Amino acid sequence: MNTALPLEPAASLPDEERPRGTRRLETYPELLQRLSHQSVVKHFDAYGDIPWDDPEYRVEPEDPRWDLSVDDTLRATTWFRAQPAGVRARIGLHMIATSMKVGVQFENVLKRGLLEFAQTLPNGSPEFRYAYHEVIEEAQHSLMFQEFVNRTGFDIPGLRWWERLTTRWVVSCGRRFPALFFIFVLGGEDPIDYVQRTALSSDTPRHPLLKRIMQIHVTEEARHLCFARQYLKERVPRLGRIGKAALAVAAPVVLGQMAKIMMQPSGQIIRTYGIPKAVVAEAYTRNPQHRAETIAALRKVRALCQEIGLITPASVPLWSAFGLLNGYSAS
Fold this sequence. Notes:
The protein is mostly helical. Helices cover about 65% and strands about 0% of the residues. It contains 14 helices and no strands. The longest helix has about 35 residues, at about 85-120.
Protein backbone atom coordinates (compact mmCIF):
# COMPACT_ATOMS: atom_id res chain seq x y z
CA MET A 1 0.00 0.00 0.00
CA ASN A 2 1.21 3.51 -0.78
CA THR A 3 1.54 5.41 2.53
CA ALA A 4 3.33 8.44 1.09
CA LEU A 5 2.05 11.85 2.06
CA PRO A 6 -0.06 13.47 -0.66
CA LEU A 7 1.56 15.88 -3.08
CA GLU A 8 1.16 19.52 -2.24
CA PRO A 9 0.38 22.11 -4.93
CA ALA A 10 3.44 24.07 -6.00
CA ALA A 11 1.90 27.28 -4.68
CA SER A 12 1.94 25.88 -1.11
CA LEU A 13 5.64 25.03 -1.06
CA PRO A 14 7.37 27.06 1.63
CA ASP A 15 9.82 29.80 0.90
CA GLU A 16 12.73 30.05 3.31
CA GLU A 17 11.56 29.47 6.86
CA ARG A 18 10.37 32.64 8.58
CA PRO A 19 8.59 33.26 11.88
CA ARG A 20 4.82 33.51 11.72
CA GLY A 21 2.44 35.77 13.61
CA THR A 22 4.95 38.07 15.31
CA ARG A 23 6.29 41.54 14.63
CA ARG A 24 9.35 41.11 16.84
CA LEU A 25 12.53 40.06 15.07
CA GLU A 26 13.64 36.70 16.42
CA THR A 27 17.16 36.30 17.76
CA TYR A 28 19.65 33.94 16.15
CA PRO A 29 19.23 31.31 18.94
CA GLU A 30 15.43 31.57 18.54
CA LEU A 31 15.80 30.99 14.80
CA LEU A 32 17.88 27.87 15.40
CA GLN A 33 15.34 26.57 17.90
CA ARG A 34 12.51 27.10 15.41
CA LEU A 35 14.37 25.44 12.55
CA SER A 36 15.20 22.45 14.76
CA HIS A 37 11.55 22.16 15.78
CA GLN A 38 10.49 22.26 12.12
CA SER A 39 12.91 19.42 11.38
CA VAL A 40 11.06 17.35 13.97
CA VAL A 41 7.50 18.08 12.84
CA LYS A 42 8.01 18.43 9.06
CA HIS A 43 10.46 15.94 7.61
CA PHE A 44 10.43 13.15 5.01
CA ASP A 45 11.79 9.66 4.52
CA ALA A 46 13.28 8.75 1.14
CA TYR A 47 11.47 5.41 1.04
CA GLY A 48 8.49 5.95 3.32
CA ASP A 49 7.28 9.08 1.52
CA ILE A 50 7.94 8.15 -2.12
CA PRO A 51 5.93 5.29 -3.69
CA TRP A 52 8.84 3.99 -5.77
CA ASP A 53 7.02 0.86 -6.93
CA ASP A 54 3.79 2.57 -7.94
CA PRO A 55 3.31 1.89 -11.67
CA GLU A 56 2.73 5.60 -12.25
CA TYR A 57 6.22 6.30 -10.85
CA ARG A 58 7.97 3.89 -13.22
CA VAL A 59 10.91 5.42 -15.10
CA GLU A 60 10.69 4.90 -18.87
CA PRO A 61 13.62 6.63 -20.63
CA GLU A 62 11.56 7.70 -23.66
CA ASP A 63 8.61 9.07 -21.67
CA PRO A 64 7.94 12.51 -23.25
CA ARG A 65 7.59 14.04 -19.78
CA TRP A 66 11.40 13.87 -19.45
CA ASP A 67 11.80 16.25 -22.40
CA LEU A 68 13.42 19.60 -21.61
CA SER A 69 11.12 22.43 -20.56
CA VAL A 70 9.97 24.88 -23.20
CA ASP A 71 12.21 27.66 -21.86
CA ASP A 72 15.37 25.52 -21.74
CA THR A 73 18.17 27.06 -23.80
CA LEU A 74 19.29 23.71 -25.25
CA ARG A 75 15.74 22.87 -26.34
CA ALA A 76 15.66 26.15 -28.28
CA THR A 77 18.55 25.10 -30.54
CA THR A 78 17.95 23.77 -34.06
CA TRP A 79 20.13 20.75 -33.25
CA PHE A 80 17.95 19.67 -30.33
CA ARG A 81 14.67 20.20 -32.19
CA ALA A 82 15.97 17.97 -34.99
CA GLN A 83 16.41 14.98 -32.64
CA PRO A 84 13.75 12.23 -32.51
CA ALA A 85 11.29 12.53 -29.62
CA GLY A 86 12.77 9.50 -27.85
CA VAL A 87 16.28 10.96 -27.98
CA ARG A 88 15.05 14.30 -26.64
CA ALA A 89 13.39 12.50 -23.73
CA ARG A 90 16.58 10.51 -23.02
CA ILE A 91 18.66 13.67 -23.00
CA GLY A 92 16.25 15.29 -20.57
CA LEU A 93 16.25 12.25 -18.27
CA HIS A 94 20.04 11.97 -18.49
CA MET A 95 20.39 15.63 -17.49
CA ILE A 96 18.02 15.19 -14.53
CA ALA A 97 19.82 12.05 -13.37
CA THR A 98 23.20 13.77 -13.69
CA SER A 99 21.94 16.67 -11.61
CA MET A 100 20.81 14.22 -8.94
CA LYS A 101 24.13 12.35 -8.97
CA VAL A 102 25.97 15.64 -8.53
CA GLY A 103 23.48 16.35 -5.74
CA VAL A 104 24.47 13.10 -4.00
CA GLN A 105 28.14 14.06 -4.22
CA PHE A 106 27.53 17.66 -3.16
CA GLU A 107 25.48 16.54 -0.17
CA ASN A 108 28.23 14.07 0.79
CA VAL A 109 30.59 17.03 1.07
CA LEU A 110 27.93 19.09 2.85
CA LYS A 111 27.27 16.40 5.48
CA ARG A 112 30.96 15.85 6.17
CA GLY A 113 31.56 19.59 6.42
CA LEU A 114 28.62 20.03 8.78
CA LEU A 115 30.00 17.29 11.02
CA GLU A 116 33.39 19.02 11.05
CA PHE A 117 31.62 22.29 11.85
CA ALA A 118 29.66 20.67 14.70
CA GLN A 119 32.88 19.36 16.24
CA THR A 120 34.02 22.94 16.82
CA LEU A 121 30.90 23.94 18.78
CA PRO A 122 30.81 24.23 22.56
CA ASN A 123 28.40 22.34 24.78
CA GLY A 124 25.00 24.00 24.80
CA SER A 125 25.31 25.41 21.28
CA PRO A 126 21.92 25.46 19.48
CA GLU A 127 23.86 25.27 16.19
CA PHE A 128 24.98 21.74 17.12
CA ARG A 129 21.45 20.36 17.22
CA TYR A 130 20.38 22.04 13.99
CA ALA A 131 23.53 20.93 12.16
CA TYR A 132 22.72 17.30 13.00
CA HIS A 133 19.10 17.72 11.93
CA GLU A 134 20.38 18.98 8.58
CA VAL A 135 22.83 16.08 8.23
CA ILE A 136 19.95 13.64 8.75
CA GLU A 137 17.77 15.39 6.17
CA GLU A 138 20.58 15.57 3.63
CA ALA A 139 21.18 11.85 4.07
CA GLN A 140 17.54 11.24 3.13
CA HIS A 141 17.98 13.47 0.07
CA SER A 142 21.03 11.49 -0.99
CA LEU A 143 19.05 8.25 -0.68
CA MET A 144 16.23 9.50 -2.89
CA PHE A 145 18.57 11.06 -5.46
CA GLN A 146 20.65 7.89 -5.77
CA GLU A 147 17.56 5.69 -5.98
CA PHE A 148 16.32 7.84 -8.86
CA VAL A 149 19.68 7.56 -10.63
CA ASN A 150 19.64 3.78 -10.20
CA ARG A 151 16.17 3.50 -11.72
CA THR A 152 17.15 5.45 -14.85
CA GLY A 153 19.74 2.82 -15.83
CA PHE A 154 22.37 5.47 -16.59
CA ASP A 155 25.87 4.92 -15.18
CA ILE A 156 26.66 8.50 -14.18
CA PRO A 157 30.05 9.56 -12.74
CA GLY A 158 28.85 12.99 -11.64
CA LEU A 159 31.66 15.35 -10.72
CA ARG A 160 34.86 15.28 -12.76
CA TRP A 161 37.98 13.88 -11.08
CA TRP A 162 39.58 17.28 -10.50
CA GLU A 163 36.36 18.59 -8.99
CA ARG A 164 36.30 15.63 -6.60
CA LEU A 165 39.90 16.41 -5.57
CA THR A 166 38.77 19.72 -4.04
CA THR A 167 36.09 18.16 -1.84
CA ARG A 168 38.42 17.32 1.06
CA TRP A 169 39.48 20.97 1.21
CA VAL A 170 35.84 22.09 1.23
CA VAL A 171 35.06 19.63 4.04
CA SER A 172 37.97 20.99 6.09
CA CYS A 173 36.52 24.49 5.75
CA GLY A 174 33.63 23.34 7.95
CA ARG A 175 36.14 23.30 10.82
CA ARG A 176 38.78 25.82 9.73
CA PHE A 177 36.74 28.49 7.90
CA PRO A 178 33.00 27.88 8.40
CA ALA A 179 31.98 31.12 6.67
CA LEU A 180 33.62 29.97 3.42
CA PHE A 181 32.06 26.53 3.85
CA PHE A 182 28.58 28.06 4.04
CA ILE A 183 29.27 30.14 0.92
CA PHE A 184 30.01 26.80 -0.79
CA VAL A 185 26.74 25.43 0.63
CA LEU A 186 24.72 28.30 -0.84
CA GLY A 187 26.61 28.02 -4.14
CA GLY A 188 25.30 24.47 -4.52
CA GLU A 189 21.88 24.76 -2.93
CA ASP A 190 20.67 28.10 -4.31
CA PRO A 191 20.91 27.22 -8.04
CA ILE A 192 19.22 23.84 -7.69
CA ASP A 193 16.52 25.32 -5.43
CA TYR A 194 15.87 28.00 -8.06
CA VAL A 195 15.69 25.44 -10.88
CA GLN A 196 13.34 23.14 -8.96
CA ARG A 197 11.02 25.91 -7.82
CA THR A 198 10.86 27.25 -11.38
CA ALA A 199 10.02 23.77 -12.68
CA LEU A 200 7.32 23.21 -10.05
CA SER A 201 5.67 26.56 -10.78
CA SER A 202 5.51 26.01 -14.55
CA ASP A 203 2.63 24.45 -16.48
CA THR A 204 4.90 21.87 -18.15
CA PRO A 205 3.67 18.29 -17.45
CA ARG A 206 6.03 16.63 -14.94
CA HIS A 207 6.65 12.99 -14.24
CA PRO A 208 5.10 12.31 -10.78
CA LEU A 209 8.31 10.77 -9.42
CA LEU A 210 10.37 13.82 -10.34
CA LYS A 211 7.68 16.13 -9.01
CA ARG A 212 7.55 14.29 -5.69
CA ILE A 213 11.33 14.39 -5.26
CA MET A 214 11.49 18.10 -6.05
CA GLN A 215 8.68 18.95 -3.64
CA ILE A 216 10.34 17.08 -0.79
CA HIS A 217 13.69 18.63 -1.57
CA VAL A 218 12.60 22.28 -1.74
CA THR A 219 10.48 21.89 1.42
CA GLU A 220 13.46 20.84 3.53
CA GLU A 221 15.99 23.02 1.70
CA ALA A 222 13.95 26.03 2.83
CA ARG A 223 15.36 25.40 6.31
CA HIS A 224 18.90 24.65 5.13
CA LEU A 225 19.11 27.83 3.06
CA CYS A 226 17.71 29.89 5.91
CA PHE A 227 20.32 28.53 8.33
CA ALA A 228 23.27 29.12 5.97
CA ARG A 229 22.21 32.71 5.27
CA GLN A 230 21.57 33.57 8.90
CA TYR A 231 24.86 31.98 9.98
CA LEU A 232 26.73 34.20 7.52
CA LYS A 233 24.82 37.31 8.62
CA GLU A 234 25.66 36.49 12.23
CA ARG A 235 29.33 35.52 11.83
CA VAL A 236 30.86 37.39 8.87
CA PRO A 237 30.70 40.82 10.56
CA ARG A 238 32.82 39.31 13.37
CA LEU A 239 35.61 38.15 11.05
CA GLY A 240 38.93 39.93 11.15
CA ARG A 241 40.06 42.12 8.29
CA ILE A 242 42.16 39.36 6.66
CA GLY A 243 39.45 36.73 6.99
CA LYS A 244 36.79 38.97 5.53
CA ALA A 245 39.06 39.99 2.64
CA ALA A 246 39.82 36.35 1.86
CA LEU A 247 36.12 35.50 1.92
CA ALA A 248 35.32 38.43 -0.40
CA VAL A 249 37.77 37.11 -2.99
CA ALA A 250 36.77 33.45 -2.62
CA ALA A 251 32.99 33.97 -2.78
CA PRO A 252 32.63 34.84 -6.50
CA VAL A 253 35.04 32.05 -7.48
CA VAL A 254 33.10 29.45 -5.50
CA LEU A 255 29.70 30.69 -6.70
CA GLY A 256 30.79 30.94 -10.33
CA GLN A 257 32.18 27.40 -10.38
CA MET A 258 29.22 25.89 -8.52
CA ALA A 259 26.70 27.53 -10.85
CA LYS A 260 28.50 26.08 -13.87
CA ILE A 261 28.44 22.57 -12.38
CA MET A 262 24.76 22.81 -11.44
CA MET A 263 23.39 24.52 -14.55
CA GLN A 264 25.28 23.15 -17.57
CA PRO A 265 25.33 19.62 -19.10
CA SER A 266 28.13 17.28 -18.14
CA GLY A 267 30.86 16.15 -20.51
CA GLN A 268 29.33 12.66 -20.44
CA ILE A 269 26.03 13.97 -21.83
CA ILE A 270 27.78 16.02 -24.52
CA ARG A 271 29.78 12.95 -25.64
CA THR A 272 26.93 10.44 -25.37
CA TYR A 273 24.58 12.38 -27.63
CA GLY A 274 27.24 13.99 -29.81
CA ILE A 275 26.21 17.54 -28.97
CA PRO A 276 28.41 19.79 -31.15
CA LYS A 277 30.61 22.39 -29.44
CA ALA A 278 28.83 25.11 -31.40
CA VAL A 279 25.49 23.98 -29.94
CA VAL A 280 26.89 24.01 -26.38
CA ALA A 281 28.10 27.56 -26.99
CA GLU A 282 24.76 28.56 -28.50
CA ALA A 283 22.78 27.11 -25.61
CA TYR A 284 25.05 27.91 -22.67
CA THR A 285 28.42 29.61 -22.80
CA ARG A 286 27.42 32.37 -25.23
CA ASN A 287 23.73 32.53 -24.52
CA PRO A 288 22.40 35.73 -22.86
CA GLN A 289 19.29 33.90 -21.66
CA HIS A 290 21.36 31.23 -19.89
CA ARG A 291 23.54 33.92 -18.32
CA ALA A 292 20.39 35.68 -17.10
CA GLU A 293 19.11 32.41 -15.61
CA THR A 294 22.43 31.89 -13.82
CA ILE A 295 22.30 35.42 -12.40
CA ALA A 296 18.70 34.83 -11.28
CA ALA A 297 19.63 31.51 -9.64
CA LEU A 298 22.31 33.25 -7.58
CA ARG A 299 20.29 36.40 -6.90
CA LYS A 300 19.68 35.69 -3.22
CA VAL A 301 23.23 34.70 -2.33
CA ARG A 302 24.65 37.60 -4.34
CA ALA A 303 22.36 40.02 -2.46
CA LEU A 304 23.52 38.43 0.80
CA CYS A 305 27.16 38.97 -0.17
CA GLN A 306 26.33 42.61 -0.89
CA GLU A 307 24.59 42.96 2.49
CA ILE A 308 27.46 41.52 4.53
CA GLY A 309 30.15 43.45 2.67
CA LEU A 310 31.69 40.77 0.45
CA ILE A 311 31.34 42.69 -2.83
CA THR A 312 34.39 44.89 -2.50
CA PRO A 313 36.67 46.81 -4.89
CA ALA A 314 39.05 43.84 -4.80
CA SER A 315 36.35 41.27 -5.58
CA VAL A 316 34.30 43.18 -8.18
CA PRO A 317 36.57 42.08 -11.09
CA LEU A 318 36.03 38.44 -10.09
CA TRP A 319 32.25 38.86 -9.90
CA SER A 320 32.39 40.45 -13.34
CA ALA A 321 34.68 37.75 -14.76
CA PHE A 322 32.17 35.06 -13.80
CA GLY A 323 29.28 37.14 -15.19
CA LEU A 324 27.58 37.37 -11.79
CA LEU A 325 27.64 41.06 -10.94
CA ASN A 326 24.65 42.35 -12.95
CA GLY A 327 24.59 45.91 -11.72
CA TYR A 328 25.96 45.35 -8.24
CA SER A 329 28.90 47.42 -7.07
CA ALA A 330 31.23 47.54 -4.11
CA SER A 331 29.77 48.85 -0.87
